[in-house]
Queue: 2 jobs
Job 1
Amino acid sequence: MNQQPKPSTGWTMAVDYGPIVVFFVADKLAGGGTHGALVATGAFMAAIVIAFIVALTVIKRVSPMLWVSAILILGFGGISLYLGDPKFIQMKPTAIYLLFAVVLLAGVIKRKAVLKWLFGPIFTGLDEEGWLKLSRNWAIFFLALALANELMRNFLSFDTWLTLKVWGVTVVSLLFGAANMPMLLRHGLDPEKKTQAIEETPVE
């Protein structure tokens, strides 16, 4: 049976990160302030719709993250545009962080690691206790991000909030992921198998 060519990782990256880059660039091009924020919100909404279409037609799969993001961006973005107030689109990250935290904590309480379902093929060799600890750690991290987002959107300008949201949260998330590596290694993670799994895992 002939297999369809796999979508490039470039398409996946574009779907995952394209909308937030459009959001950031649109705000800067529109001159910032309330006007820039509303223009950026409209561009963000258009970009997430395009990303959703690309996921359906090119990648042939819409991830749970994209479903959640699209619903919240269109919902909060629509309210922001209708009321002329960008604070509602700023609430979207808080909603996502809280949702992730609740889902992960519920799994930990039930002794079922949700992250294992998502990243099992990548974190090869990690034992069940390691998955539970990783889920717990990320749940706490998402709660901290939700609190940080609320503080930033209430006390900082939209432009400053957006810059920290795009670049600051990304850097902090990478550092937090790296900080978990010693714990993962103690619980059976095999770095060599992990690298092999990443290379062999098909893009869906």
Note: Confidence is low (pLDDT under 50) at residues 1-5, 194-204.
Job 2
Amino acid sequence: MQGEVLLNNMVKNALSSYQHVGYRASVEYSDPHQLVGMLFNALRESLADARRQIAGADLVSKGRSIARAQKIIYGLRTTLDFKQGGELARNLDALYDYCLRLLARASCENSQDALAEVSSLIGEISDAWQLMPTRRLSARQ
């Protein structure tokens, strides 16, 4: 039994290392658009994790997931180019600020509703972001 547990831990560590290498490689070879897409994906995962953790009363993990989501949103805010983006960049910045306030509320009140609202808002932005390359290519043809 002890050997089985040791083997399981070794397999988990190997998988974790492999995933980390795969992630680092995808980041290294991605363009800025793809990197922002990765941030959106990670944010959506963190929000889904937090919702599950609240439902399961795992409040410590919920706190970590919400903190991760907040860090990602701060990262997304740093990608905004207010000079070129103008009103769109200002609107996204305000939306990100609103999402951060909702996440603070979700953390304090264990609010599924606040997390659902952030998930919905981020989902719309993420979906639009994913369509951008397709639209740019279509406009050129």
Note: Residues 3-12, 17-23 have pLDDT under 50 and may be disordered.
